[in-house]
UniProtKB/TrEMBL annotation:
This is FKBP12-rapamycin binding domain-containing protein. It comes from Litomosoides sigmodontis (Filarial nematode worm). The lineage of its organism: Eukaryota, Metazoa, Ecdysozoa, Nematoda, Chromadorea. One of its GO terms (molecular function) is protein-containing complex binding. Residues 11-48 form the FKBP12-rapamycin binding domain. Pfam families: FRB_dom (PF08771).
Amino acid sequence: MTFSKYAKAHSHAPIHDKNVKAMFDLLDPLHNMIDRGATTLKEQSFKQ
């Protein structure tokens, strides 16, 4: 899943509700995407 699709699929409600666990649950997959590295040609060219 790309970041933009992920962002559209999840609301910002945990931030507004000050729900810390939900915030971490929302951010964890994003950190995994970053750790995985560039996977598409656009990501690879942006990284250079």
